[in-house]
């Protein structure tokens, strides 16, 4: 991995904010702690409207086909994302797609139509799969870790080709297209392509084909390592990729209040479910040949939040959180993806108390200093 200041310079753009759409039940922590969050549409409609008024630019929906570790009910993300677009004015909604169940012909057509209907506000998150039991339940073959990424890369190449070329012809190992003409094609802005995962295969794929790389929560030092690796590889490929980092935010008036909320979440964690989740995710990052992917180093406490969101440490007062967001930005994050315990009220609080401080710190911090 390289470690030059040029590869780690933070973006001159303001850091962007996204929130996890609770389109599956049980919230974002595997805990019996009270969560004033619902997966139903009335709740989500209001949440999306609050979010777009609070400075959130994106919402990310999730794909789950079966229950696992608390997520007993799961709404389908493309349909759900479209419903959210129809209830909002400027929010961009990122729909999760899982190659295998989705093939690129259907996905390209679905997303192109939604893009046309909603002025280009739809984006996608290509996920590669970690939940073997889910694949078994729906009769999908389970590929090895790096094969899953090889398929995802072809999936993305196929989407880009279908969306941009007439008479698209593609000869892949997973997908074939023959003089295919999609009409209508997406209008500008074209759908942005996000991807989730942190293994070497994930980083390599991002550096070749994705617009955005989403990774699990982590410290600025660990994020910087991933960013350096991706940016160096992307530069060699003549590609550029932006980085989104997951975090579970607990913003309270005092640090001790925020810490005690975290302690309660952990205390009331469901140990069997957390352990079962920990066992299952071995099929993801730990199964990567180099063992570096998501969850490869997660502790019990980390696993209580599905995507290691406590590790980003956005837990404390608005000022502390704003400073830590700047540290993540300095490490190369272009976007912070946020989960909350009580989504509606906390998205509103975050927009009112944290985002303005982030903007102040960004304005006060010359980029040259930020890059050090
Ligand atoms: C921000 C983010 C969102 C994700 N969303 C989903 C999802 O909705 N459904 C899913 O099955 N996997 C999801 N994943 C899992 C990844 O696609 C991937 O399978 C997992 O991170 C393991 O990949 P790795 O071995 O490259 O780290 C997500 C990952 C991240 C970082």
UniProtKB/TrEMBL annotation:
Span of domain Luciferase-like: 19-334
Top-level taxon of origin: Bacteria
Keyword vocabulary terms for this entry: Flavoprotein, FMN, Monooxygenase, Oxidoreductase
Gene3D superfamilies attached to this UniProt entry: Luciferase-like domain
Name of the protein in question: Dimethylsulfone monooxygenase
SUPFAM superfamilies named in the record: Bacterial luciferase-like
GO molecular function: alkanesulfonate monooxygenase activity
KW Nuclease (keyword) present: no
One Pfam family matching this protein: Bac_luciferase
GO biological process entries: alkanesulfonate catabolic process
Keyword Ribonucleoprotein: no
């Amino acid at each position: 991995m390289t470690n030059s200041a040029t590869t780690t310079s933070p973006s001159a753009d303001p850091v962007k904010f996204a929130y996890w759409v609770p389109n599956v039940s049980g919230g974002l922590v595997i805990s019996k702690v009270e969560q004033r969050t619902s997966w139903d549409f009335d709740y989500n409609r209001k949440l999306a409207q609050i979010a777009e008024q609070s400075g959130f630019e994106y919402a990310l929906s999730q794909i789950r086909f079966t229950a696992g570790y608390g997520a007993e009910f799961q709404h389908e993300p493309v349909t759900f994302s479209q419903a959210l677009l129809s209830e909002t004015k400027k929010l961009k909604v990122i729909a999760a797609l899982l190659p295998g169940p989705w093939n690129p012909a259907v996905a390209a057509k679905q997303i192109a139509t939604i893009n046309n209907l909603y002025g280009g506000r739809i984006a996608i998150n290509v996920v590669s799969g970690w939940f073997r039991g889910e694949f078994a339940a729906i009769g999908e073959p389970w590929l090895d870790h790096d094969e899953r990424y090889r398929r995802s890369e072809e999936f993305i190449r196929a989407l880009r080709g279908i969306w941009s070329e007439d008479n698209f012809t593609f000869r892949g190992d997973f997908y074939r297209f023959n003089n295919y003409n999609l009409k209508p094609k997406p209008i500008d802005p074209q759908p942005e392509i996000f991807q989730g995962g942190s293994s070497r295969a994930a980083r390599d794929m991002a550096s070749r084909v994705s617009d955005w790389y989403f990774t699990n929560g982590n410290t600025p030092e660990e994020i910087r390592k991933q960013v350096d690796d991706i940016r160096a590889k992307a530069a060699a490929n003549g590609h550029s990729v932006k980085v989104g980092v997951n975090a579970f935010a607990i913003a309270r008036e005092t640090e001790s209040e925020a810490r005690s909320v975290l302690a309660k979440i952990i205390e009331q964690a469901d140990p069997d479910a957390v352990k079962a989740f920990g066992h299952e995710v071995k099929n993801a990052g730990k199964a990567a040949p180099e063992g570096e992917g998501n969850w490869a180093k997660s502790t019990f406490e980390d696993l209580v939040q599905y995507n290691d969101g406590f590790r980003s440490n956005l837990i404390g007062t608005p000022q502390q959180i704003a400073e830590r967001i700047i540290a993540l930005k300095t490490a190369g994050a272009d976007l912070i993806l946020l989960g909350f315990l009580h989504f509606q009220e906390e998205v509103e609080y975050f927009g009112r108390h944290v985002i303005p401080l982030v903007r102040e710190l960004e304005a006060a911090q010359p980029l040259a200093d930020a890059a050090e």
